[in-house]
Design brief:
- The structure is a single chain.
- This protein has 4 helices and no strands.
- Helix content is about 80%, strand content about 0%.
- The chain starts with a helix and ends with a helix.
- By secondary structure, the chain is mainly alpha-helical.
Length: about 100
């Protein structure tokens, strides 16, 4: 029983840290965008700031969404459904951004 309680605490801490890491990644991207140093790829293509943000933002949003999905057991049914939609939509956005980075840029 005690081992199960400790494992649950570790699991919830890891899930919370996942959300925090996603938030820190979001702050890093927004800080770089505000300074004009947002690097989308290693290829020298002139992209506008909005395009760079569209290609960079899915990563932190997906990381935060995964952290929320890990915690859905402790959420209400409504918030768990929102977390599932968030991870699905951010995953689609992330896949599209990666496809653009690989095949277009």
């Amino acid at each position: 029983m005690l081992n199960n309680h400790i494992a649950l605490k570790i699991y919830r801490t890891a899930a919370s840290l996942t959300v925090i890491v996603g938030f820190l990644l979001l702050m890093k991207i927004l800080f770089q965008a505000s300074r004009g140093t947002l690097d989308v790829s290693h290829v020298t293509v002139e992209l506008g700031l909005l395009s760079a943000l569209i290609l960079s933002l899915p990563v932190p949003f997906h990381v935060m969404s995964v952290g929320l999905v890990l915690q859905r057991k402790w959420m209400t049914e409504h918030w768990a459904r929102i977390a599932n939609w968030a991870v699905t939509l951010s995953g689609i956005w992330l896949g599209a951004a990666l496809a653009v980075k690989l095949f277009v840029i």
